[in-house]
Sequence to fold (350 residues):
Amino acid sequence: MDVDERIARVVLDPRVFQLIVLPTEQCNFRCTYCYEDFSIGKMSPEVVEGLKRLIAKRAGPQTSLQLSWFGGEPLLASDVMLDVCGFAKRCFAETGGSYRGSITTNAYRLGIDLFGQLLDAGVSDYQISLDGPEEVHNRTRRRRDGGPTFATIWKNLKDISVFAESSECPGFEIHLRIHYDGRSIHSLGSIIADIADQFGGTGKFQVSLHEVERLGGPLDDELVIPNEEDHELARSYARILKARGLTASVSEDIDGYVCYAARGSSLVIRANGRIGKCTVALSDDRNDIGLLHPDGRVEVFADKLRPWLRGLFSGDPRELECPLQGLTALRPDPPEPQLIQLSQTRHRRG
Fold:
């Protein structure tokens, strides 16, 4: 099957470069459905230096860098974030091109002072998850010590919404991801109303109602898989939010999605300098595709990278949507890693 032009641009365009960076793989939460093992700590200065040198190699007038922060909880290493983001912003200001920062955070540490620093460093997109109203959320999104998290997150969000009304406020977007399973979906009415009341008039908040998935966590069996009636209830919540001026969607209804892991110029940089393609399969050897060196060089196993990009050649929407699904096992003895000179592709046109 031939891949259409839109897919080819999304998957292969060398001018668009995405780095998904884990500045630490530790977390201050222990969500009941989490799949991570928190075995790796904060990014070392050597890996930070390699990351900055890689960014410098890619900075140029025809290049677009999306620098996405993940974890663990990335704000546990906010100093690394601010250092690298500030460096990237300066590089692209000097050489042209475009740079945009984003973060997936639990927002527990996203006080207004740190939020302002992140905005100044070019981090403009924020994905923050809530699991429902306070009593529901606190059962599943707990602190590492078992304590509650909702009140602190909600206060931070309210402070951000007030800040958004300031004339000096730079542009940003908050993507609220409201999790649900077949049990919790019936308890979301009050949080939907609160979001509409608090954030409906800011123009800065978007909402996605997202099914909690079984991604390999130890408590996966406790999740109640939503049925079509549950998804329809989620759609009704989205309609309420839209009526109040918010952009709202249900993940179940998204069609034609191309995963970042299926894209040729998207890499996951882990806190230890290892390189992957997927932020879910962190403990899967098939996802350990290479290494970032302190001088900015990137080494990859070509045979380990190739299966992640197979959707480009097959045109199979399932392989483009989630290349992890159906990923074949590795052969016993992969070849030596091959050096990828990313700097040489700086000004290539797609």
